[in-house]
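quick one
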Amino acid sequence: MDIPCDLIEYVRQARHVAVLSGAGISAESGLPIFRGEDGLWDNDTIMRFATPEGFAANPKAAWEWYAHRRGEAGRAGPNPGHKALVKWQEELASCDGWLEILTQNIDGLHQQAGSKKVTELHGSGWILRCTECMRERKDRTLKFPDLPPKCPECGGIERPGVVWFGESLPVEALERAVWLARECDLFVTVGTSGVVYPAASFIMVAADGGAKTLEVNLDPTPLSSQVTWALHGPSGEVLPEVVEKAF
Ligand code: BV8
Ligand code: ZN
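structure w/ BV8:
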């Protein structure tokens, strides 16, 4: 890919980098994205499986969808795009800088690749939360004996520890995202269609604060015309090339 020299120069000297990732960064790990022709979402899916009302109406059906996605994510591994962010983070840490990740993904692949400081804006598919006593637990079962899973404490139905449409993002995640957007010199979006809010708003907070912005995405998005640089290609190829050329 033809990567602009001024971008490489800027990456080389930026000391504070915030990255917002979406489903596209996990596409080359074999995980499906949400939108587009073979995407996971259609309006019906969103309403049935990714809203509190849909879950309450049929927890078993919603869980069959999440259990299937957990199975895929559990069998997937980080790809070169995830690993390039680990290298970039290590480069910055070695010179008193920082790179932090805000992810919309619930697959845990950034952490599995070795990224530190990952904020999961939309929660985690590996957390179960009891709908009765609110107890949370980490769980990596890939094949549930029975759905929906039940709380070991009170027997209540457990839900995925994710943020559904119409639910607020965790306060600490929102606060971290705003802090990163305000403090970074470079805000990078990777593999996101930029249509879900408030996640898609942070890049504009960064730009308003004087940061330069980079989009790495397979296709153009509503953000493409607003960023400083837009690189359209697979993140598993583009990110390693940017990091390789800069450091
Ligand atoms: C909230 C659950 C408020 C976990 C998800 C303005 C402000 C606030 C809210 C709203 C607002 N406008 C509208 C809203 C409501 C809503 C919203 O944004 N709706 C949209 C659809 C218009 N937002 C909310 O409801 C949020 N809640 O703000 O609450 C509130 C306040 C007070 C009180 C009550 C409520 C909650 C949003 C979170 C919803 N949960 N997921 C799960 O099941 O996974 S969102 C879902 O979309 C996923 O988390 C996903 O990550 C996210 C975003 O999708 P992307 O990651 O971008 O994936 P997508 O497929 O779209 O794009 C992938 C891209 O990758 C593509 O562009 C493709 O080209 C590219 N790609 C493909 N292959 C590659 C690649 N790129 C690089 N390399 C490749 N190889
Ligand atoms: Zn319980």
